[in-house]
C-alpha cells in the first residue's frame, strides 16, 4: 500500500483526488491537511464521501507528511515549492497539481504567476507529468509538475502533427472551452451560478498562464519555432473541457496528404494508451463522454479547402486534466499498472 | 461469472446498467437487444462506453437470452410481461425495471398503465425489489419488479415512522423533485433543453402512477389506512431526486416524543444498510452527494410547532432509483455480497 | 417625471430595478449609491445596461437622495431603517426591498434578523407592499416594506381560501423552490455554479425568516390561528420561484365543495389584477412562463381523496418577488396606472 | 398600424416574434398559421403570452394572409419560397427567417439545403436583411431573406477589417458557440436536456450551411478571395451566441498598425448603429449581456505576437440573430424609427 498525503484537500482537485483514491486498491490515505478545517472530518465537508473516507483534515503542522510515500499538492501556486524540499529530503515523492514545477523557464513562471520561484534548484529534476509524452522520465521522478488542464488537451492534440512536421508550428490556434469547476472552489462573484449559468464568455484572451507552459512543452517536439494563440472560454457546465485546435498544414503537404494519413498519425501515436481514445475521423466528441473518468478523446476534421486540420479534444478537466492524471503519474512512479484505480466508466447521461 | 442479458439497452436505465455492469467483477455482459439498433456497437451509440463495452445491440430474435443467467428489462411497460414466462421457463431469472411486476393489484396496474396485464399468473411469485424492506424474499426470487424511483425514496423515508406507528398514515404528503433523466430518452418536446432548462414545474399533480405502487407497499408496514398525497416536480438537472416528505405525528405522540427518539428509529432501521445513509438530525442533503452512486441519504427535521416530521431523502434516480437497485437485487439473488460492483464514490462536484 | 434614487444598486434586486426603470416612462433615475463602486458607471459593472443607463454609482455621502421623490433600498437588512427617517423628514418616499419594515412584530424581527430594530417609531406607518391584498394603504403610504419573494407566493396562493374560511388555517404547508438569484450577489461558496448546478437541496428547513412575515400577514385574513410549515429549496436555475402549497379543507367542507367553487374563489379574488393570472383548474404553471416579467400565475389541483387543495404558484423572484413589485407599489403611490412600465412579456424560451 | 401575419408561429423564432410584436406600438397581429394547431389559442401553447396575445393559430388555408401588410415566415426552409409569390403579387411584403432568400447562388442553396429552389425568379429582388451592411436596399425591399444567426455575428465582426483591407481574407477562422434554442423546437433526442446539459460539443465541423451564406456576403466587401473556416459548437444554455473570430493581419500591416487604429475602425463603422455596441478594447463580452434584447456586442483583442486580431461577438441568437433582426428590417421597410419596439433592456442575471 502506498501511504498518501494530500496538502490542500478542500478544493475541487483535492476532493477529486479523494474520490479516486478512495477506491484505488493500492492507496492508503494517510493525511489531508487544511489549516482552516483542522479536525473537521473530510466527509463532513463533502457528504459525498460519507462512509468512504474516514480521515479528518489536520493542520499542516500536525500532519506527519514525512511518513507518507507520496504527497499531492492540491494547493494554490507557491505552496508546493515551499514544502517540497523537506519532503524530498525525507524520501517522500511529490506531485504538485499547481504550476510550481511545470515550467523550466523561471522567468516565464515569475512573469505569469507573479511570484518569485523559491525553489529553483529543484526545477532541473522536476518532471512534467504528462505520461503520454513523458512516461520514461516520470518512472524515475521524485518530483512531478502535473500539467494544467488546457495544456493537456493542447499537447495531446497537436503533438502527433508537430512531431510529424506536417503543420506550421508558428501558427497554432487553440480555441478552448472549460467547465466552471476549472476556476476552483473560491468565494468569487464571477463564478456564482447566477453569473455563469445560461451564459458564455471568453476570458484571458490577451494572455493566459497556460500558454507559456504549453509552448515550452510543444517546443520540445519540433525544431520549428512554436507560436500559439490560445483563447480560453467559460462554459456553463461543471466539468468538462473541449479544445478546438486549428493547425495549418504546410503548403506543400496540404496538397498531397490524405485524411487517412493524418488519422493514422494519431492512431499510431496513441495505440497503446489507456486514456487517449482516437475516435473515427470526422467524429464530434462530447465532453460528457469523458465525465468523471480519466479518458481524453480526440477526433480529426479537415473542412473546406483542406488547408487546416481541426483537432477536437475532450476530457474531464478535474480528472485527466488534473487529479486523474496525477494518480496516473503516481501509478507510474510506484511501478503499478498505469490504469490502477482509474478505470471509472464515464457517467452518461 | 453471471451471464447477463439486457432487453432495451438504448434508454437511460439501459446505459446506466451498462456503466455499472462494465466494472462489476462477476458480470459477463452477454446480450443487449434493440430491434432498431441491430448490429450497432453499443459504444457507437454511447461513446462513453468506448473501450469498455464491446457488445453490439442485437435484434431480440437473434439474441439468445435463454442462455443468460439473468435478464434485465430496461424497456417500456408491457415488454417484460410478454417475455418473462419463456425466460423463467428456461431457468433465466428476470429483473424488470418497468412496472409490469411491481404491483400485486392488477386493477390498479391496468388503470394507471392503460394496458391489460398479460401475465397475471406470475404476479404472485413476483418480488418487489426493494432490498432494505424486502431482502429475504429477493434472495429466492426468480422474478423481480424493480421499484420506481420516487417510490424508493418515499418508502425508505416513511417506513421507520410507519412501522413505529408514530405518524398518521392517513395524511402522508410527498413533495418530490426529479432530474430530467427520469423522463427517459425519448424524442419529446417537453423534455428538450430549451423547454426545461432554467425553469421548474410540477407535473401529474392530479395523479401519478407511483402513488398506487407506493401505497401498496407502505400499507404492508401498518394496519392504519395509508393515504398519500404525492406531487412530482421536474428539476433542471440531469440526475438526482429529492423527496421532501411531510409526516404528521399522532397527536398524543407529538407532545412527548423527542427528536433523538425519531432519529434513533432511522439509525436503527438502516444501521446495517450499505446504501442508506442516515445523516445527522437537521442536515440538508444535496442530490449531488449521491450523483452516479447507489447511495440514498436521509435527514430528519422537525420544524415549527413540532407536529410534523419532515424527512428529506436524496438519491440518484438512475442508480438507487433504477439500475443500481436492480444490480443490488441481482447481487442478492446470486448470493454475492450485496455491494459488489456498486461502490462508486459519488461524483462531486 | 418621478425622481428616483436607489441605495445599493449593485445586487440583483438593484440591477433589476435599473432594468425596469430604464424603460419606465415616468422614471427619472437620479442617483444610485454604492460606497465601494463610487464613480464607476453602472454600465461598466453591468454591460447589459450599456447605452441604457448613463448614471454612475456615487458614494452615499455625495448622492443627494433628499432631492428624490422616492428612494428604493436594495440593500441588506438594517440599512433602510438607518436612513429612512431623514428621507421621510425631507418628504422623500421610501420603498425598502429588505425586511426592515415588513413586520410589525419587532420581537419577531429582532429574533429572525439578529439585529435591534433602530426605527421602531416608524413601524406603525410602514405599509406592507403587497398591492393585491393591501392596495388602499399603499396609495397613501410614505414608507413601504416590500414583501419577501416567498411570502408573495404564499400569501397570494393561500389568501382566497383563508378568507373564505374553507381550509384549516392551523395546518398550512408550503413547499417552495427558488432560483439561485434569490440568494443574492455575494461572494459565497455555497452559491457557486459548481456547487449548485445539476443538484437540488432544501435549506433552512428548521426555520426561515419568511415564515413569521407570512404568518403575520396571513393572520390578518382569518380569525383562526394560522400555523405554517414552510420548506424552501434551491433550484439550479437563475430566476424563478415555484411554491407548492398544501391546504387541508375543513372536514365538513371537503365533502361538499366542488372544484369549480374553489376555482371561482380565485378567479373572483384576482379578476381585476394585472399581475395575477389564475390559470385553468389542473394547470401546471412553469416558472419560465413568468421569466423577466411581473406576472404571478396560480393553478389549483385537488388530487386523490379530495381532502387537500394543492395550489401551484409561480413568479420571477426578482420581479414580482422583488423589484417589479416595488415598482408596482411606486406606481400606486404616485397615482400612475399600476402597470406602467411593467408590461414586459415573459421571455420564453 | 402594420397588419402582420406569421406563418409557422409554433417554433422559437415564431414565439419570439410574438413576444416582440406584442409590445410593438405599430404592430397589429393579424394572423398566425399552424396547420397542426388550428384553432388553438397561441397563449394556450405558450402560457408566457397569456393576457398578451389573444390570437389563435389558424390553418394556412383559412388565414387571410393576403390582407396583411407584411408576413413573416418562421418556418423550415422551403415554405417561404412556395408562398411568397402569391403574397407579393397581392402587395404583401415578405420577411423569411429561413434560408430561402438568403443566398443568390442557387447552386449553393440547393447543395446545402438539399432541395430545389422553386422560386428562382424572385431571388434577384430578394434583399439580404442585415441592416448594418445593407440598410439602403432593405428600405425599398418587398422580399427579405433574414440572415442566419451565425452569419450575423461573423459579418458584423469581420466587416470593418475586410473593408479596410487589413486582414488576409483567405484565412478567416470563426469558432462559434450557440445556445440550444438555435436548434429549434423539434422532437429530437440530440437536443434533450439530458443529452445537452452539462456538456459541450462541436457539430457540423466538416461543413455547415451558414458558411456559403456568410462567404457570399463577405465577398461583397472585398476584392480578395474570401475563405472561411467556420466551426459551430453547442453550449448548454438556452439563448446566446458567442463568436470568436480569428483574422490574420496582412504581414506588412501587422507590424505597423496600432490597436487604437483597429478599434477606431469598428467604432467608426458602427457609430450610428442602435444595435451594435463596440466595447472597449480588450473587453470580454458575455452572451447574457444581450439576453432577450436586440443588441450585438463586439470586443477586439490582439494577443501574443500581434499577428492576429481576435474579435469577440455576442448576441441573443433568437433576437438579433433572428426575430429581432426581422422586426428591425420591418421597421426600416415601413419607414419607422429602426428601433421601434426593440428597446428591451437585456435580462441580467
UniProtKB/TrEMBL annotation, chains A, B, C, D:
Q: Which CDD domains match?
A: AGPR_1_C (cd23934), AGPR_1_N (cd17895)
Superkingdom of the organism of origin: Bacteria
Q: What does this protein do?
A: Catalyzes the NADPH-dependent reduction of N-acetyl-5-glutamyl phosphate to yield N-acetyl-L-glutamate 5-semialdehyde.
Under PANTHER family, the record lists: N-ACETYL-GAMMA-GLUTAMYL-PHOSPHATE REDUCTASE, CHLOROPLASTIC-RELATED, N-ACETYL-GAMMA-GLUTAMYL-PHOSPHATE REDUCTASE, CHLOROPLASTIC-RELATED-RELATED
**Which SUPFAM superfamilies does the UniProt entry name for this protein?**
Glyceraldehyde-3-phosphate dehydrogenase-like, C-terminal domain, NAD(P)-binding Rossmann-fold domains
One Pfam family cited in the UniProt record for this chain: Semialdhyde_dhC_1
Full protein name: N-acetyl-gamma-glutamyl-phosphate reductase
Pathway the protein acts in = Amino-acid biosynthesis; L-arginine biosynthesis; N(2)-acetyl-L-ornithine from L-glutamate: step 3/4
Where does the UniProt annotation locate this protein?
Cytoplasm
Instruction: Indicate where this protein is primarily found.
Output: cytoplasm
Q: Does the keyword Amino-acid biosynthesis apply?
A: yes
Q: Which Gene3D superfamilies match?
A: Dihydrodipicolinate Reductase, domain 2, NAD(P)-binding Rossmann-like Domain
Where is the Semialdehyde dehydrogenase NAD-binding domain positioned along the sequence? Answer: 3-141
